[in-house]
Structure of Host cell factor-like protein:
Amino acid sequence: MEIKTDEKEVKIEPEIPIDKRSDNWLPAKRSDLVKTGQGLFPRARHGHRLVAIRGLILLFGGGDGEIRDELMVYSTENGNWFKPSCSGDIPPGVAAHGMIADGTRILIHGGMLEFGKMSNDLYELQASKWEWKKLEQKGLKSGMVPCPRMCHSFTNLGSSGTVVLFGGVANKSDSPERIFRPDYYNDVYYLALKGGTGIYNWSKPECTGTAPCPRESHTSVVYKPEGRAQMVIVYGGKDERRRLGDIFSLDTGTNSWTELKPLGVPPLNRSLHSAVMISETKMVVLGGLVQRSEKFDQLMDNHCPTGKQIWHADDSVRILDLAADEWLDKGLQGDQQDKLSFGRYGLQAALVGSQIYIFAGKKNYKECVNDLVFLETKTPIRPVNLRLMKGMETEIHVAWSSIKTAEKYLVQCSPVEPKKAEKKPENSEAKSDKEDKENKTADKDKKDEEGEKKQEGEKVPSDKIQWHDVQILKHTGVGPTVSCEIQYYYQEASEGETLSEDEKAFLDAEKKWKKTKLTPGVTYRVRVCAINSCGRSQFSEYGSYKTSTPGFPGAPWNIKVSKTDLGASLAWQPPANADVIEYSVYLSVKKEYTTGQSGGPSTGKSNFTRVYIGHDAACIVSHALLSQAATSTSDSNKAAVIFRIAAKNKKGYGPATQVRWIQDAKIKRPAGGAKNSDAKKAK
């Protein structure tokens, strides 16, 4: 708000002057920090409000030169703004209102309708069908419905089903259409919510303790200390004379106020900022209007009645650890404090997953913006579901599940040194060439079939392996999976090659490197990690994949597993130019079910048993066989059944492809248990 003064009253130009022109939208523009696609993009504004519902960001109200009365929605999944077709009691345009999300509905309360005119109406939007409804309000006692106001806080406590309204400002002028005489509040109201639609009544608690002074344009968030009721944390804002930097907590269990005195260096006093909780204990404060000089902290000064030379838009991002009661001197993405791309006030923020989305605001007293940016708050999660897509003589194609918060991925691999053959005793009898050839062929088939089955039990710890960088992949955000074609990896060498700019992004440019091509018939361990501006994730569980030997078939690829009435349906693509004779499918089963075992007590380890052999590149594994499966959770929060599939030609079996079939629920085992006879029949 721009302030003008005389001796007796304060005239304030509204943040959103009312000029009811038709609502126009600009074509989508692309931000350098967030994809927006080709949809509509909202006009520049301030005094608006944002809430997040299931990956959608809902925007209502605010404006710049006119108040907006349309709902706009941004999808964080596809990066598009869209304007839903709404029905029902559509609310008028409003600014500096209260807005909360409750499941799939939103509530809007109060705000400024036009210059000098405030509202205390309450509207509900059912986002599942984009239907508005004006709600009737009642107080448990007379006078318990909040008066018309704007710039108040409206905070959903969540599980308790209560919304807390605090503070704000009203107009007490006898001529509200001409003069704004602010009347500041520090009252508290509770609004009880029903499940579905409708509301309960307003109530006004009798609060104790040290309450905040009357204020507006502050922020409030919800904090739940262990073993205590939910706390509403009120920060900053402004009263009649100055901007504020104090912090208060309202215990909603005892209705008592407490002023907090956090340790650390506090931010400058501010109003028109935004604040969000990014974890159970950390509040992030973004932007706002702050003083240019410590000499001046009052809204009005004889040398600058408008305040334009005293106040300016702030670009800081500060973190308050509520559990430690301390302002942190670190940022979200490292030791240094974070900054917005430019100072702004009147901005709004919403948390979606681990990303703080910030929309619009004012850069200065004249210029509004309409950019949408986000700030990442956490490192990405660990990549999961790493699998072989295709194996060839000198290439391995792998894929893994896409991670929304990743900006890029680092792929590494490590060749597995073959075990040295045992020396034969000197007095052993020499075998004939024919016998030797037959035995080698038989041994080769047996080892190729069983070698992959033994690999799970012989897994080497990841930190004991010498890993080599392969490449950095940019995260495109397209599709549920990310894939990488591995043809070579980098090794440190005495004489290196000239590095490209892309290679310098992940290799130490001060060292010398050479590319090493993949070799036929060698097993390579592969792992991947996700990277964003906050850092690097843990590496995935590694997978071991073998390049095909010349003459032998490659690994089956593009494996698809689905649930049917008969069991698990598997289908795959055959290796290229392999003249496949047959395929073998193996299932990881508990040791007690392994063919040849006596059925003794399980050791807790798994073995692989063959559940299909045939020429078709598809099969069904019965429920009886699936009941024997040893589910794995090493790379996912959900249990997974593990299959391996290998192809055979005239020379023998090639490398196997492993696939993890994620389970929604624990596999049901038939009464009495399944016996080994089912597995034998499959062979």
Q: What stands out?
A: The two ends are 80 Å apart (CA to CA). Residues 557-596+605-662 form a domain with the Immunoglobulin-like fold (CATH 2.60.40.10). The longest strand covers residues 182-193. Residues 1-38, 448-457, 596-604, 665-683 have pLDDT under 50 and may be disordered.
